[in-house]
Amino acid sequence: MPNLSFQENLIQNIFMLEAVSRIAMSTLYGFAVLSFGYTLSLRAREKKHFEMFHNLARILFGFATIFTIIYGTLEFILPLNSITTQVYTVICLVLALAVIVIDRGKEGLPSFSFLMGALIFLMVTITPFVDPKPLYRATSVDWLVYFHIGTAALGEAIFVASFCASLLYLRDYQNLKKRKWDKNSSHTSLSTLEKLIERSSLIGLTFITCSLLSGLALIFIGTFAVQVGFIKILWAFLVWGWYVMTIFGRSFWGWRGRKGAKLAIFGMILLLLGLFGTIWQYF
Predict the structure, then answer these.
(1) Per the confidence metrics, is the pTM higher than 0.90?
(2) Out of 94, 197, 211, 266, which residue is the most buried by the measure of CB atoms under 10 Å away?
(3) What is the residue range of 13's domain?
(4) TM segments (predicted)?
């Protein structure tokens, strides 16, 4: 192995630090958004331990902001990406600081943090897919490929459960409205189906977020050049954004009952279209 000069060694170390910072940003922002989502869900159901998730979300968000500052500083020292990526990084930092300033105190404003956090996560994560420039390559990341596929499959399977529960909810609601309930039958109550739809959507979003994060990591540390189709990127983030919106709507705007069930069904349609688009590009 040839000896590297001090300058080459410094550049290589900055490459690695930028890659680590970028992955840390997306990971921490992603889990912060999920924690804010759980906070809203628990708060809407008046659960006592929602404050624990709120504090966890704040901590994760704070660390993500620190890594954003580190990444921005390194990018200023040694620009590795296009000017678009640098502008997005500055915007994300400004939004993150706004969240930290606004979401203070015991009550805070988790709904605002959830929306802004989702927007920041979207910008931080989607930028490398559009402008992929792998900075550091590991010797083997087979486990990461399996993790990416596995979490995506689990998330989609859980969304299917939410879809089925939504169909049952609409059917039982129509039966109740038309007074066609059989008193001797054991229909699942509407409230139970409502809880199943809400929780499965939140858990499914958790796995889909992990899948997006692992996909981002594959771009940076993959052993092979990553070729990502535009259709796959578009539908993946569209489905993720749709379920973020439905979870926020359930907790903040009261999108429950029939409206919540219809939103979950439409989310499943988006997911199927995304799968069709991903498969279609190989033919």
Answers:
(1) no
(2) 197
(3) 1-136
(4) 20-40, 52-71, 83-102, 109-130, 145-170, 202-224, 230-249, 261-282
